[in-house]
Amino acid sequence: MNQPSYLTKEGAEKLRTELLQLQGPVREELSKRLRAAILMGDLSENADYAAAKEEQAFIEGRIQELTMVLRDVIIIDDNRTNTHLVEIGSTVTIQEDREPEETFHIVGPQEADPRNGKISFNSPIGEALLGHGVNDLVTARTPDGEIQFRIISIK
């Protein structure tokens, strides 16, 4: 059985749009490129054909991946009422020692974008935060070693 994919409503919509693009216009354009390359003759020395076949394999793989992600999707509720404990979908503000506060939205791996404040629930910091509350001192084991921070707020 596949693991569910946790996505925000916007993230799921973005992936659905990408899937429709790949299944429709992208496949259609690639099909035209393949037909044109085949018409050129000798396929064993046809760089256009080889490139198009390689791109086709990538696109079909991405279509399969998106289909699986969207089939088992769980939409993260933006209207959460539990602000006592960190869970998937929480927006958490933390502070490490005397460093500036940082705010993260806990999302699924497909949407993780740490530079934009979105971290995966199964990243070291995301995993460490789950189940903790405001003022808890949390330790995360990262590739660079352990870090400790305090939870300032949960939304």
- What's the shape? elongated
Can you count the beta strands? 7
Distance between the termini: 32 Å
Strand content: 15-25%
Tally the helices.
3
Topology:
Layout: E1 5-7, H1 9-39, H2 47-71, E2 73-75, E3 91-95, E4 102-107, E5 118-120, H3 124-129, E6 137-142, E7 145-154
Parallel strand pairs: 1-2, 4-5
Antiparallel strand pairs: 3-4, 3-7, 6-7
Summarize the structure.
By secondary structure, the protein is α/β, with parallel strands linked by helices. The chain folds into two domains: 5-75, Orthogonal Bundle (Helix Hairpins), CATH 1.10.287; 91-154, Transcription elongation factor, GreA/GreB, C-terminal domain (Chitinase A, domain 3, Roll), CATH 3.10.50.
Fold and architecture overview:
- With 155 residues, this protein is of the alpha/beta class.
- It folds into 2 domains: 5-75, Helix Hairpins, CATH 1.10.287.180; 91-154, Chitinase A, domain 3 (Roll).
- 40% of the residues lie in helices and 23% in strands.
- It is built from 3 helices and 7 strands.
- The protein has helices at residues 9-39, 47-71, 124-129; strands at residues 5-7, 73-75, 91-95, 102-107, 118-120, 137-142, 145-154.
- A hairpin with a 6-residue loop joins strand 3 (91-95) and strand 4.
- The chain is elongated.
